[in-house]
Amino acid sequence: MDTSHSDGGIVARLRDVIFSYDKQDDTSAVGDEHVDPDAREGFVLRGVDLDVPDESFTVVMGASGGGKSTLLRTFNGIIPDFIDGTFDGDIRVLDRDPTTSRVSAMARDVGMVIQDYESQLFGTSVETEVAFGPENLAVPPEKIGPRIDDSLSVAGLGDLGRTREPDSLSGGQKQRLVFAGVLAMHPDLLMLDEPTSDLDPAGSRDVLSVVSRLAEAAATEASVGDWDGPDSIVLVTHKIEEALLADHAILLKGGRAAHAGPAEEVFRNVEALRESRVAVPPLVEAFERLGFADEDLPLAVDSAVEIVNNANLTWTPPGKRDGYSPSVPAGTATDLGNPLFELEDITHEYDADGETIRAVDGVDLTIKEGEALAIVGHNGSGKTTLAKHLNGLLDPDEGVARWNGRDIRELGMSEVGRSVGYVFQNPDHQIFAATVREEVAFGPENFELTGEELDRRVARAIETVELDGLEDADPFTLSKGQRQRVALASVLATDPDAIVFDEPTTGLDAEQQATFMDLVADLNREEGVTVVMVTHSMSTVATYAPRTVVMSDGRKVADEPTRELFADEDSLAEWDLRPPQPVALSNRLAAEAGQTDALPALSVDELVAGLADEPITTTGSGGGST
Amino acid sequence: MSAASSLYVHGDSVFHRLAPRAKIALVAGLFAVALVFDHPAFVVVPLVVAFGTLVALGGWSNFRRVRFIVVAVFVVGLVVWPLFTPAGGPIWLSTPVVELTRNEFLVALGRSMRFASFIITGLLFVTATSNEELVAGLRSLGVPFAFCFAVGTALRLFPTLLGATGTVRQAQEARGHDLRSGSPLQRIRNYIPLLIPVFMTAIRNVQTQAMALEARGFDTQAERTFYGRQSLAGSDWVAVGVGSLMLIGSVLVRYVLGMGTV
What we know:
The structure holds two protein chains of two kinds. Chain A is of the alpha/beta class.
């Protein structure tokens, strides 16, 4: 391990770093008000002081739009060399001053992987992609070949054909190819900016295994091929399960480093996490509510089991506890009406490189009025293709899709589109209008709604998503979470009976996710809107969907109540799905107690209730009850 | 069924295995034959060779995707070229509206076949040449790296942009937007809700790409190396020879022997 760059055990040192994406005349008045980098106005960093230890795996967390990515971009000189704005402060990274270096020069020592893998792939083949960085650094050609082999091997892509075009790879493979391309440059500091945000659980796991391997190499001075590996890794993420891999943590709040220290301490500090709008690890939250001291709070299921046994706590599964009935997050079996969607033997095919791919293969699915249902499965399993049959965006090649008993193919978009809304994963794929009001009015206007009724619907939709006051704002200047809500409002304004959500929580921080999904749950419970969500987030499924459909290779392999589905972890593993921590812990405790027919806890509330001596009043979102 | 965005068809044919430079030489030879001769009896040769090879390499589905363009170019050429061709030879078609002489017909047919030949030969090239090979071919011909890089990046991102366009279209259709309704002017305006998100997405992507490029050490001013430059194999030299022969031979036949003209 080369530590010659380090500065007394510190790989990066920032002092009084401030940054604004727009030009500011007065750098002394940074203020305290939260500024979203999307808005590109005001100071995003407001005097950051932090040290990144050498040979460490450091995670940076904070609210969405809280300046995490902005901070990372100061490490390799993107700020202030590439992104113009207002910058001040002192930075030393690997004994160099990035503010006086070109980004391309810093690239020799600092590697960066960002969330959007499509924007980072420049080669027309796997081989040229990995070779691109070393070529830019003028590495002799005879040394590039071994670097390609080693980097692909470390990234778990050793078996991939060297001439394959990046476009033909899965999302997880593309992101690992980006990793390989950066690793081939042999950086001393590796920066990862939400590298798994756009990946399914299997793709995320593959990427994380690469990160873990590199972190281990950094900590143990093991080699990566003929290279010593990076000295240090810095990861930005919203996902707490990823953050728990790190050994050092920094929490950003209000444009400053509010808390920093060993990861085990930081992630047990519930107050600090909440202040920074970072998701509290579910087991930490549960055991804190059970009254355990901070230093005893478990971060992993194994340690939680040990604590339960040592404290002689007894696990009582939901439904078997006196005075407590398990919460049903949204919609109940007794609430449901007539079948709204009836999909019979749906098959959908498409052509890829002359090969016919059967994306959906003979799926039957009935969804009743008022139901809240999740469709899960790995990337390419057919879940989104299936969901697009619900409002006629796709027609089946075989089979029939019915809405209220009528063949959707025979109904125009003017009829089915009005009643079945579809909220796409990326709100930027639909926003085009100059104001929020115009954007929200677009749908109802297309359905020929005018006058007072149009104004009333638009106002109500904006109010429902809590964007009142921003009617005249330009949607492009809003944060990602707000743009997501604009997209939802534009669908709500058509007054739909059902809404399909495609990955509703992607890119949102813990607080934004809870706010958005609570809104969806309210629509389901109070307005009776049927909700179908396509998602990779198992915690979202556990909290908000009483019923779950699992897709695998185009087929429906499971369709059952979420609680029963999560009781069968072997099947979940077979489908590349991993349950949230409360589910995993309650399943483990039930198995150890010999409770063969026990159903798991789906939330922190239920876990606490099942371990507490007395019935506990629950506080969580998503319909928790007492 | 939706269509694939790339035209490249994987294969292991002799043509597939040729080096990009050798393919460019063969394609240039076919282009030369179609360009030099006017008479349909000569122009039909590169047309048939290109079409036959295209089909043999599995490119029929690609041809189906562009068949409307080929047919349109062919038919429009047949109608338009006689207007710009000196009349000559016997009258082959006589109607109260128009008369068509032998020369006018043969020139029009030859020109239409020439343009069809260009399209199909180009299609043959991209059917058997991956983006990677195309960029490598340009580089090996001495084209500046920055230009080759731009071509390669554009080719790689084209399917991504197409995918984003499809998603935006679906997102707007789901809100009841109908691209095909209204007057011609209204139909043009109908594309605004489609184009703005596509352009905004593209602009955001370009900013991210530029940042990611610099972070990977890309600098047009700095010294760089090139990995994987390969020399031509024996079969490549044969292909280059055939292409050169077609080019030189057609010029000689046309301009020295005076054959192949109407």
